[in-house]
Each structure stands twice: as structure tokens, then as C-alpha cells.
TrEMBL record:
The keyword Protein biosynthesis does not apply. Keywords: Two-component regulatory system. Residues 39-102 form the HPt domain. Transmembrane segments: none annotated. It comes from the Bacteria. The lineage of its organism: Bacteria, Pseudomonadati, Pseudomonadota, Alphaproteobacteria, Hyphomicrobiales. One of its GO terms (biological process) is phosphorelay signal transduction system. One of its GO terms (molecular function) is protein kinase activity. This is HPt domain-containing protein. SUPFAM superfamilies: Histidine-containing phosphotransfer domain, HPT domain (SSF47226).
Amino acid sequence: MTEAGDDAARARLETALEAVRARFVAGLDARTGALVELARAAREHQPPGSDLARADLLRGLHSIAGSAPTVGLRDLGARARALEALVASAERDGGLVPDIVEDIRSLAACRT
């Protein structure tokens, strides 16, 4: 492939990645909103729903932690990973920290 061909291919790839990133960012408010509701349900300690909510919360945070860096949002991925670890440790220790809802809500601010 020629240098011009390489540049064109690179430009197409960057355009495609930007489109994926834009879709990811566009859905971030809805995803974090759902995670906030799961955190509230898990924090309430109302079995059996709280166990299911906590598992779904962990899965959602894990998904963001893995997907965000893939689309160039490393800070968001790192924050989601830290929250995932916090929720996992809270599960072992018997409860979620009171600030978890605000911490999750703040994920939506990590769009760059």
C-alpha cells in the first residue's frame, strides 16, 4: 500500500473509531443512570433484590471499565474500574458506601 493509501486507511479507521466513541458517549448518561438505580437498590439491602442489583452493578461497572479505554476514554475506564473494586470490596464487607451513588453519577462527567 502507498503512503497515501495508508493515510486514507488511517483516516477511515479514525472516523470509524470516532463514530463508535460518539455512540458510547451518547449512551453514557443512560448507562450511569441505570447504575445509580442499581446502586440505590443494592445499598438498601433488601434481599433478594439487593444481591441481584449488586451483581448487575458490578457487571455494568466492569463493562464501562473495559469498553471506555477501547474508545479512548482512559480516565472513565480507570474510574469505573476503581468503583468496581469498591463495590466488590463493599460486597465482602457487608455494604456499599453512602457516596457510591454520587461516585457513579460522576462517571458521566468523564467524557473526554
